[in-house]
Write a structure and sequence with these properties.
Elements: E1 8-13, H1 20-24, E2 35-37, E3 47-50, E4 53-56, H2 86-96, E5 100-104, H3 114-132, E6 139-144, H4 150-162, E7 167-169, H5 184-193, H6 208-216, E8 220-224, H7 237-246, H8 249-257, H9 260-263, E9 269-272, H10 279-297, H11 305-312, E10 313-317, H12 321-325, E11 335-337, H13 351-358, H14 364-379
Parallel strand pairs: 1-5, 5-6, 6-7, 7-8, 8-9, 9-10, 10-11
Antiparallel strand pairs: 2-3, 3-4
Helix pairs in contact: 4-6, 10-11
Length: 382
């Protein structure tokens, strides 16, 4: 790969410092954010204290470059400053040869108080907008939205657009209108998964105001992992990592077969941190089952399912030679490269070497759509 080829990282992450919550939460929640406590002389990690729970400081999402020395917990000084300091982040991007990075992650709080839970989405989005304002040409942010109440989500999407954020990340499935009271990791997971078995689904007219808002404000809509979340300590961590990618096919199928992209033909929908190699199969399979089944289902779409994927659906990958090999197949046009900085799967600081490996045999012109053009189009980057 030539050094002149610019790179847009379609999926990078931030992890605000634990103390940021008290600066960004509304006054009525003053002092209720998590607190960091240094570990004692015999501790191998620091502590995070929140709502009466004292847990080891999580390093899973914030320690780029650990490689095979990775461990899920540790001390605050082990976290890279690029997680929350924009100048340090730009330096890490420069080291990796990345021109622009799109930021995900960092909220909401794992609280059983639903009012605090919702407020933490808004607090994170404000912090992220401030982070990206340091250099808006290189740092782009994606707001996180809850999906309990559509009017509430619409208002938060409009606020995100007014702050210069480039898209909104929603749960893979809607959440319950009744809110959530589980707290802990379960509450945070709901921000990504939603309720797959709930009565509400995104293809119903209830959610059309959100899609219209995103179209009107030129916001990308993303899901980040599907109905499965993988975290160390789970009984089936590695199987859940696999399924966290493949489960993202279900929300895409719901939107396509439910006619959302017929009603909103310019809506841009991204499966982020999904990998891309499976999408060509899904596109072909959806065409086949639509052709065979739509007659008795009385379902009439304006296009073939694969054509909606080509027009409306994007995906991001970290390492995916299969997806790159399928780049000419229907459904594979809109793949976007990413580093996943600073997560445990990241390619930082050797991203250009990894690109050379997985794009071997392709010239800069052939690589450019996946390394730059698609992300620029999806996120509307200048």
């Amino acid at each position: 790969m030539g050094n002149t080829l610019q790179l847009i990282d379609a999926d990078a992450h931030v992890n605000p410092a634990p103390a940021f919550w008290d600066d960004y939460l509304p006054a009525k929640f003053a002092g209720r954010g998590p607190k960091w406590e240094p570990g004692g002389p015999d501790d191998k990690h620091d502590w995070l204290v929140f709502e009466g729970n004292r847990k080891p400081l999580n390093l899973l999402s914030a320690v780029s470059g650990q490689g095979k020395q990775f461990r899920p917990t540790g001390k605050l000084e082990q976290l890279r400053a690029g997680n929350w300091e924009p100048a340090a982040r730009l330096a890490d991007m420069d080291q990796d040869g990345v021109s622009t990075a799109v930021m995900y992650g960092g909220g909401p709080l794992g609280t059983a108080d639903n009012d605090l839970y919702i407020a933490s989405f808004e607090a994170y989005n404000r912090w992220l907008a401030d982070f990206c304002s340091y250099d808006p040409k290189r740092l782009a942010g994606i707001a996180y939205l809850p999906m309990q109440d559509v009017e509430q989500s619409v208002a938060m999407a409009k606020d995100a657009a007014s702050r210069g954020l480039k898209g909104v990340n929603i749960p893979a499935f809607p959440q319950s209108k009744d809110g959530q009271r589980m707290g802990g990791f379960g509450a945070q997971a709901l921000a990504l998964t939603g309720d797959p078995d709930g009565p509400r689904q995104y293809d119903t007219a209830e959610f059309d105001p959100l899609w219209k808002t995103c179209v009107d404000h030129d916001l990308a809509v993303t899901i980040h992992l599907g109905a499965r979340i993988a975290r160390p300590g789970q009984l089936r961590f590695l199987p859940n990592m696999v399924m966290s990618k493949l489960c993202m096919a279900e929300p895409i199928a719901i939107l396509i077969f439910g006619g959302v992209f017929d009603r909103f033909p310019t809506l841009r929908f991204g499966a982020i941190e999904s990998g891309s190699g499976w999408i060509a199969f899904v596109a072909e399979y959806m065409d086949n089952i639509y052709d065979n089944q739509h007659h008795w289902l009385n379902l009439e779409l304006a296009m073939k399912p694969s054509e909606y994927i080509e027009r409306n659906v994007y995906s991001s990958f970290i390492r995916d030679r299969v997806g790159i090999g399928h780049r000419h197949l229907p459904g594979s046009r809109n793949m976007m490269w990413s580093t996943d900085y600073p997560h445990s799967e990241t390619t930082w600081p050797d991203s250009r070497k990894v690109i050379d490996w997985q794009f071997a045999g392709l010239n800069d012109e052939q690589m450019r759509p996946f390394l730059y053009d698609n992300a620029r189009r999806f996120y509307r980057l200048s």
